[in-house]
Design a protein that fits this description.
- It contains six helices and five strands, in the order αβββαβαβααα.
- Helix content is 46%, strand content 23%.
Amino acid sequence: MLLTEMNAAPILRPNSNVIAFDFGEKKIGVAIGNSITKTAHPLETIRKIKKVERIQSIENLLKEWEPGIVVVGLPLNEDGTESRLTLLAQNFAKKIENKFKVPTVMVDERYTTVEAKILLSGSVKSIRKGNQAIDQVAAQIILDAYFERI
C-alpha cells in the first residue's frame, strides 16, 4: 500500500535516511536526505535504458543508503488530474515497495523540474553536468516538500 505524507510520518524511524526519486521514462533523478535534519541533497541521475539496469541501480542505492522510507514524485497535470506518466510513476513506486520491502510515499511533483531549472540556471554545476543535475535537484525539491509536510 502506497502511503500519503500524512500516514508516512509515524512509520519513519528517527535518524533514518530518506531517498527520493524523480521518475522519468528515460532518467530518474535521485536525492538523499535525513529524517532528523530534514535536509535533502541531490545524489545522482539514473540514465539506464534497460529496465534490469535501472532496477540494479535502485537496488544498489537502497543497499548503500538503507532508507527508512522512499519518496517518489507524483507527476500530475496542472489541474491535478492524472496522466499516463502518473500511472507509470505509481507503478514504479509500487514495484520499489514490493520488491525491496521499503515503505514508499508519493508526493505531488508539479513544477519541480521548472523550479530545478530556475535554481540551476547559470550555475557552474548546471553547465558542467547538463540536464543530469536538473533531475537530481527535482528529486531534492520533492524530498524537501515531503519533509515540510511531515
